[in-house]
Write a structure and sequence with these properties.
This protein is about 65% helix and about 5% strand. The protein is mostly helical.
Length: about 180
């Protein structure tokens, strides 16, 4: 996945200023594709130069002169082209798992405190996902196709966090034994 495609997706969901896009990004796509605000601003400039987005200063912008970005037809076409390409499965690179392998051969490393910290982070993220689920996806509400897709993305994140928590608790018990 590439950042420009994540930005195009977010802008198609809602045209906005670069600042508001970066803040929204942190609370949505940022859960599974991290980017700093600076990276987003640089990407907006590149995409504007490529003719994928247009940034206009609205008449009511005042002194801030914040540009409001919207996706142009060329940007929409690029996103559709990219979305149609095959995607490789996620390539997991996890430094902590390598540390566990090192512990297995060294037998002198205590990773239980670090694993407990990881568990707390996964529990916090799961709580965030459940709050989003409760706020945005009531159980009795019928969903449109876009809403159902967004819910399934959230569900994937929840299942991931639940798996990490279950595995982490089992591993922590082993490390403390």
């Amino acid at each position: 996945m590439s950042l420009p495609h994540a930005v195009l997706t977010s802008l198609l969901e809602k045209s906005t200023s670069g600042y508001d896009l970066a803040r929204r990004f942190d609370k949505s796509i940022g859960y599974f594709w991290h980017a700093t605000h600076q990276q987003i601003y640089r990407e907006l400039a590149r995409m504007e130069a490529a003719g994928w987005v247009e940034g206009l200063v609205p008449p009511d912008a005042g002194k801030t002169r914040k540009k409001h970005y919207r996706v142009l037809p060329a940007g929409r076409a690029e996103l559709a082209r990219w979305a149609a390409e095959p995607t490789a499965p996620m390539d997991l690179r996890d430094a902590f798992t390598v540390k566990l392998r090192a512990d297995a051969v060294l037998d002198e490393v205590d990773l239980s405190a670090e694993l407990a910290r990881h568990l707390a982070l996964h529990e916090e993220r799961l709580a965030q996902y459940r709050a989003i689920q409760q706020r945005d996806f009531p159980p009795v509400q019928a969903r449109t196709r876009p809403e159902a897709l967004q819910y399934m993305i959230l569900k994937k994140g929840m299942l991931y966090e639940e798996g990490e928590i279950a595995w982490g608790r089992e591993m922590l018990a082993l490390l403390r034994a």
